[in-house]
Every structure is written in structure tokens, then in C-alpha cells.
């Protein structure tokens, strides 16, 4: 099982000081956080993609390429690549290039994006969101899987005998997760292709996450990729950790109360009782995270959101120390002990290359 962090890259005032970091400071902080993630033994760093204030990560592959040069083991991912407003040709080429730069330590998470004004900025209509996601991803798969592509669709100009360059590293494209909060069509898409499904597991109750994950698992089996238990599932989560729960609540409360996404709404206590947000001691975070298995089944990737709502860099780095030293080692052991035989490991480039070569050998012998 893989553990890591994901960021949305928001530029938010620190409510305890009123200070707003500059865009430059926020970008540099995200780079420092990624390098800290490797230092404390996490497996994955993922960044969102946004093209509107107050967010800064408009070019994920630029950021991930920088991080690739300064890390050795960290898997570099997106927590959203906008399959709707990006050109699939550019996605194919950008992420294949990143694969080569990072020696395969790359995967990608596709998402529709739910910020309406962004669509027309890229010449699209949000009302076409699902259709764009389906058509663009179908083309992207062909661009990675086929050396020469001739194609015609509804939303972009046709391609005639086109070759995307560079080709995927070792002939194996980046592993794809499809991220969705509420769209069953995206869970269906992930299942159809045998890709991974990621639920952000932050703002919604467990019953909703369970419904979406179960739909994906059932449809994964329907398309013949394996049993429902063999489907590849990732979950998000949101934590704030302190040595004891009282300090965690006291320190995080002003950030929660003023956060752009949920501030001035339900109380911290209401939100933690109704969603997966966990504010407490390392043991409380461990117990709550282990409980995700009760409604999502055995899954492959757990990412935490830890650098939002104006939290200063120093605090985030301290949080990562606690996560890496006191939480994740226990989670690794406990999840491994609970995992039944037959549930697949999290996908890695090396394992997928080995599997592809074995399949090719068997087909040749047949």
C-alpha cells in the first residue's frame, strides 16, 4: 500500500497572523513539502491542477519535473489533470516526457474539474464535461498505446498518422487513476479501462464514498479485469496531528473556522463527525484511517491533504514529521496484516513493465 500527500496549492491568508504568502512563496513551499515527503518515507506526492486564483499549480508537469530531479524514490502524481480542458495530445506528450525525466516514477489522475469559468478559458463548455472526459481519454489511451494514430472525434481537430513523442518509457504508459467525488460516469470509465479509481474522501460522508467505490468495483469485475476485490482504489483524507488531541483541536480550529472551502459553516466537531477529517493525536489518526477499510474495502493508495487553509510551511513540515514517524509506519503494518491474499499491491512502473513483458512472452509462445 502506498501512502502520500496531495496538495491543491491554495494561496490563503494565515488567520492567526493575517499574512498572505506570495505566489512565489507558495510554490516554493510546495516544492519543500514534496522533498520533505520523501525525507520522512512517504511514497507519493500529488499536485492538483488549477487555472484560477487563489490556486497556483497551473503547470503540474513543470513542478513534478523539478521534484523528480531532487528525489530518488517518490512517486510523482497529479491529484487532478483536467482531461476536459487539456488537449489529450499535450497530456500524452507531457507525461511521457515526465516518465523519462523521473525514470518511471510517474502516474496521473484524471479529473473533469468543477470550476465553471475555467472551461471557456480553454474553449470548452462545462455542459460537455462528461462527454469531453470520455472522448479525450479514449484518444489519450490510443496515443500512448499505438505508435501511429488516425482519429476523428467531436471536440478537437482530427489526427492523421500522428505519433506522440516521446513514446512512453519502456513501452508502458503512466498508470492512470480517475478521480471523482460524485460522478458515476467517471467510476464507470475507470472500470471500463481497468484503471484505478480515486475518491477524494474529504467532504463527503462514508456512505457516499462507499457507494462510489462499490460501483467502481462492481463494474471493474463486469468488464473482466478481475474480482471486485482486485480493483485498484485510492482514497484521500485530511488530518491535523499533534501529540495530544486537545492541542490538535486548539491549533487547527482557527484554520478550519476561516478556511475558504468550509469555514463559517459546520463546526469543527460537526465536520469531523460527518466526514473523514481527523484532528487529533497520532493514534486517533491511525484508528480513523484504518476505519476507511470498513467502507472502501482493501485499497492501494492513501493520500492526505495537509497544506491548506493558510497553514504555514513550518507547521506543515512538522505535520509531515509526525505523519512519517508515528502514523504511516503503523498504518503500513496494520493494513498489511489485514490485507487478504489476492488483493493486488499498489501499481508501480517496474511491476507494470514486468507484467507487460510476461504478457508479451505468453502471447508469443501461444
From TrEMBL:
Keywords: Monooxygenase, Oxidoreductase
Highest taxon in the source lineage: Bacteria
Protein EC: 1.-.-.-
Domain Luciferase-like intervals: 1-294
Pfam families for this protein: Bac_luciferase
Region (Disordered): 342-366
InterPro entries: Bact_Lucif_Oxidored, LLM_FMN-dep_put, Luciferase-like_dom, Luciferase-like_sf
Gene Ontology MF term list: oxidoreductase activity
Database matches in NCBIfam families: LLM_CE1758_fam (TIGR04036)
Protein name (database record): LLM class flavin-dependent oxidoreductase
UniProt lineage: Bacteria, Bacillati, Actinomycetota, Actinomycetes, Kitasatosporales
Amino acid at each position: 500500500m502506498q501512502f502520500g500527500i496531495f496538495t491543491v496549492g491554495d494561496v490563503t491568508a494565515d488567520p492567526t497572523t493575517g499574512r498572505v504568502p506570495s505566489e512565489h512563496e507558495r510554490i516554493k513551499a510546495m516544492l519543500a513539502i514534496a522533498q520533505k515527503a520523501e525525507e520522512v518515507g512517504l511514497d507519493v506526492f500529488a499536485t492538483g491542477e488549477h487555472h484560477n486564483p487563489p490556486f497556483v499549480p497551473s503547470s503540474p508537469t513543470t513542478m513534478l519535473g523539478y521534484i523528480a530531479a531532487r528525489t530518488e524514490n517518490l512517486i510523482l502524481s497529479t491529484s487532478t489533470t483536467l482531461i476536459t480542458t487539456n488537449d489529450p495530445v499535450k497530456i500524452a506528450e507531457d507525461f511521457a516526457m515526465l516518465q523519462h525525466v523521473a525514470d518511471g516514477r510517474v502516474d496521473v489522475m484524471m479529473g473533469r474539474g468543477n470550476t465553471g469559468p475555467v472551461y471557456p478559458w480553454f474553449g470548452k463548455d462545462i455542459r460537455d464535461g462528461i462527454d469531453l472526459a470520455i472522448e479525450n481519454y479514449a484518444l489519450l489511451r490510443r496515443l500512448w498505446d499505438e505508435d501511429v494514430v488516425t482519429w476523428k472525434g467531436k471536440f478537437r481537430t482530427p489526427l492523421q498518422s500522428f505519433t506522440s513523442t516521446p513514446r512512453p518509457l519502456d513501452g508502458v504508459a503512466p498508470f492512470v487513476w480517475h478521480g471523482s467525488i460524485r460522478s458515476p460516469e467517471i467510476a464507470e470509465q475507470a472500470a471500463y479501462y481497468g484503471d484505478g479509481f480515486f475518491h477524494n474522501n474529504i467532504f463527503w460522508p462514508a456512505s457516499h464514498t462507499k457507494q462510489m467505490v462499490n460501483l467502481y468495483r462492481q463494474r471493474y469485475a463486469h468488464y473482466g479485469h478481475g474480482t471486485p476485490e482486485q480493483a485498484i482504489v485510492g482514497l484521500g483524507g485530511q488530518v491535523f496531528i499533534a501529540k495530544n488531541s486537545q492541542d490538535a483541536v486548539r491549533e487547527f480550529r482557527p484554520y478550519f473556522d476561516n478556511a475558504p472551502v468550509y469555514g463559517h459553516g459546520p463546526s469543527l466537531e460537526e465536520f469531523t463527525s460527518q466526514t473523514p477529517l481527523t484532528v487529533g493525536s497520532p493514534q486517533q489518526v491511525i484508528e480513523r484511517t484504518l476505519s476507511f477499510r470498513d467502507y472502501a474495502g482493501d485499497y492501494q493508495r492513501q493520500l492526505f491533504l495537509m497544506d491548506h487553509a493558510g497553514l504555514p510551511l513550518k507547521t506543515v513540515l512538522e505535520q509531515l514529521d509526525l505523519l512519517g514517524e508515528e502514523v504511516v509506519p503503523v498504518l503500513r503494518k496494520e493494513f498489511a496484516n489485514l490485507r487478504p491474499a489476492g488483493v493486488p499491491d499498489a501499481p508501480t512502473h517496474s511491476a507494470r513493465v514486468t507484467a507487460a513483458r510476461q504478457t508479451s512472452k505468453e502471447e508469443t509462445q501461444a
